[in-house]
Design brief:
By secondary structure, this protein is an alpha/beta fold. The protein is built from twelve helices and nine strands.
Amino acid sequence: MRSASSLLVLLLASACSPAFHSGALPGEPKDATYANVAGARVRFVDEGSGPVVVLLHGFASSLQTWDTVRPALRESHRVIALDLKGFGWTDRPEGDYSPRAQAELVGQLLTQRGVTQAAVVGHSWGASVALRFALDQPARVTRLALYDAWVYEQQLPTTFHWARAGGLGELLFSAFYSERPDDKMMLAFYDTRQVSESFIEDVERALERPGTTAAALAAVRGQRYERIERRYREIDQPTLLLWGREDRVTPLAYGERLAKELPNARLTVYPRCGHFPMIEASAASRRDLVAFLEPERAPLPLVPPSKARPVAPAEPAPPAPPSGGTLAPDPFPGATP
C-alpha cells in the first residue's frame, strides 16, 4: 500500500511539475537593463555615484521593494539593485536557488560592474543572501543593513520542510503557490489598508510569469539554515538591523536573536510596522539607513539588544507598496514558522 501511494504521488508530481523558464519574460519593461550572470539573465539598476550600496529584495519580490529607498541613497552613493534569480524580471532557469548561489550571482554582477567592495542591504530572505555573501566574500562587504531578516531554520514553516520531498513539493507548489495572494500580503503589513486591489492585481500578474512557481520551489528547497546559521558570529562588519515591531512573518524575537549573535550589530525597532519598514516606517527607516551608510561614519558601538532603540512616533500615512509584486516568505497562509 505504501509503495502504491508513493507511486501515485510521483505520477501526480510528474503530471503537474512546474517548469523553469530561461530568457526574456513576456511583458518585460522596455527600459530595463539586463546582464548575463551565472547562467541567468539578471535585471538590475546601477545609478548614482560614490560608495557602492547593493540592495537585495526578499522572497517572491523584486528590486521595486526599494522604490522608497533608492532616491535618497543615490544622492550620495552608487546604488546597485537587482532582481535575484527567479524573481522580478530576472529569468527562471533551472539550477541552484540557495542563498549561496544567489550570493555568488551578486558577486559576479558586482565584478562585471567593476565593483570590488560594497555595503549590502537585504530584506527578509534577501538578508540570508547578504549574510552568505559576507561569509563567502568578507573582503567585499564593508557593512550590512538587514530588514526583518529571514535567516534561521526555526523560521521555516512546516510546508517548507514538506516541500523538500521530491514529488510532494511539486504537488504543493503547483496547487497552492499562486492561491490567495491577498491573504499572504495581509500577514505582511500592520496597516492592511496598504494591500489595495491594484496591488493584489500586480502580485497576481507577477505570479503568472513563466517559471515563477518552479523558481519559488527551488528557492524554498535552498533554504537550509541549520549549518550556516552557526557561522553568523563570524561576521564582524558593522550591521544595522531594522525591524517592524508587529512583524508576523519574521517576529521581533528573531531580530533580538540576530543582534546577539552578530558581533557588531545594532537593532532598531519601528512601532506600528509589519514586515516592510521601508514602506510602513518609510521616513524613519530611510533616515536611519542613510545615516548608517554615511561614507565616513565610524563603526557602530556594540549595543545589547535589550537597549535597541525604537523609533517613535509611528508614521500615520506610509506610501503605497511598490508595484511589481511582493509576497510574504510563506506561500501557504496559516503555516507557522
